Amino acid sequence: MTNTGKYGIFYTVSTNYLIRFEYYAENMDERRKYPRINISFPVECKMLQSRDYFYTVSKDLSLVGAKIVCNEFLPKNDFMKLSLNFINKILDVKARVVWSSQERASERFSTGVEFVELAPQARDELTRFIAVTQGS
Fold first, then answer.
1. What is the CA 20 to chain-centroid distance, rounded?
2. What region, left, alpha or beta, does residue 77 occupy, with left being phi > 0 and alpha being psi -120 to 50 degrees?
3. Is the pLDDT of residue 7 over 60?
4. Which of 59, 67, 68, 94 gets the most CB atoms within 10 Å of its CB?
5. Domain for residue 63, yes or no?
6. 4 Cβ contact partners less than 8 Å away, ≥ 6 residues apart
7. How far are the Cα atoms of 10, 43, 54 from residue 77, in angstroms, in the given order?
8. Which whole number is the average pLDDT over 95-110?
């Protein structure tokens, strides 16, 4: 068990594979089903509708989505392909923009994306990455 203050993460690891991953919040106002870790890593984004692409960084990550930094507003429900660069592994996922808002005193935008297509192997890699990062 890992305890992060008012949040808890329980997971079981067998032969270096994460086989169970559960999350609970002691604060009943918490709406997230999966833990979100504050982590910054390079992200390549390719907008599927316009074919535009850009490079950016993440602000946080969970098993079902991420927050990224953008130089432009991204419309809600736009789809994109993301390449998440974890240094020793690059995961490709299809994501949908859930929200985008301008950061305070900045020209940049924070954008929340939901992963809508994630291969089972990539999901396993992401689960292990989050568990190991959260545990450190």
1. 19
2. left
3. no
4. 68
5. yes
6. 35, 134
7. 32, 19, 18
8. 94
CA distance 77 to 58: 19
* CA–CA dist 134, 42 (Å, integer): 19
Collapse the DSSP code of 127 into the 3-class scheme (helix H, G, I; strand E, B; otherwise coil) and give the result.
helix
Does 97 reside within a domain?
yes
Task: Flag whether the pTM goes above 0.85.
Answer: no
Q: Is 89 part of any domain?
A: yes
Reported confidence tier of residue 31, pLDDT bands at 50, 70, 90: low
Q: How far apart are CA 28 and CA 94, in angstroms?
A: 30
Specify whether the CB–CB gap between 68 and 43 falls below 8 A: yes
The residue segments making up the domain with residue 131 are 34-135
CATH of the domain at 54: 2.40.10.220
Residue 60: name the closest of 136, 119, 11, 133 by CA: 133
Number of domains in the chain: 1
Question: Which range, of 19-23, 73-77, 85-89, 131-135, averages the lowest pLDDT?
Answer: 19-23
Q: Is residue 91 part of a domain?
A: yes
